[in-house]
Amino acid sequence: MNILAIDTLTSTLSVAAQGPNGLVTQSFTGNGPSHAERLLPLIDAAVTAAGFTAADTETVLAPEGPGSFTGLRLGFAAAKALQLSGNCCFIPIPTLPCIASQYEAWNGNIAVVIDAKRERFYAQLFKNGAPVTEAFDKTAVDLLPYFSENEEWLVTGYGTSAFKHTDAISQSSIRFRFIEADPLSFAYSMITYMQKYGNVLKNAADYAGPQYIRKSDAEKD
Question: Which residues form the Gcp-like domain (predicted)?
Fold first, then answer.
C-alpha cells in the first residue's frame, strides 16, 4: 500500500511515505519559505523516493489535533486535496494518542502535553497505553489534580520544558520524568499508528475537520 503521512504540527515540517521502495521521510526545519510553500516539494521528494507518485497515494494521513490552528488546517487541506484529486483514503490521526504510542515500552503512566501558548497546554493522560482522560486545554495548575502523587509519570510531547518550568509543576512533589518528543518522528509514527489501530480510526467520510479544542478568537467574540 502507498501511504503518505503529512505532519504540520510544529515548526518542523515533515512527511513520511511508505511504498515499493520502503519507508522514506523528508523534513524541513528553519526560517525562510513557509510550511505551505515547502510542503508540496517535500511530498514529491518523499513519494518519489518511496517508489510512487502523489497521484498513486492510496492512504493519506494528517494530524487530527489538538494542535495549532494554522498547522492543523494546512495538514487537513493538503490531505483533503490529495483525497479529492486521487480518490485515496484520508485518515486523520489523533495527535496525543499517537505521541503516546511512541512510548509503549514505558509500562506505566504517560502524560502527553503540547505547549498551547498563553500558559496553557493541550494534554491527555494515559495508563499502560490506554487513555484515562479526554484531551484537555488547561493550565498546569488545572492539570495537576489529574496526576496521582504516589506514581511516577512520563511527560512527553512538544513543549515539555515549558510545562516542567511552570510553578505548579516545578514545585510539585509528584515524580515526573520529562522527555521531549522528536518532531521528526511524528510523520513516521502516524503510519505505524494507522497500521496498528486502523480498524478503529475514522475515515474522511466521518471527519468534520481538525480537533481544535480551543475556540479561535473570532469564535470567542
Answer: 34-148
pLDDT of residue 220: 47
Pair (89, 193) in one structural domain: yes
Picking from 64, 83, 77, 41, the residue whose alpha carbon sits closest to that of residue 186 is: 64
Sequential DSSP letters for 77-139: HHHHHHHHHH--EEEEEEHHHHHHHTTTT--SEEEEEEE-STT-EEEEEEETTEE-S--EEE-
Instruction: Tell me what pLDDT residue 30 has.
Output: 62
Round to whole Å and give the CA distance between 6 and 64: 11
Least confident of 65-69, 83-87, 141-145: 83-87
How many of the other CB atoms lie within 10 Å of CB of 134? 10
Contact 46, 73 (CB under 8 A): no
Question: Could you tell me if residue 209 is inside a domain?
Answer: no
Q: Are residues 149 and 168 in the same domain?
A: yes
| Amino acid (1-letter code) at residue 169 | I
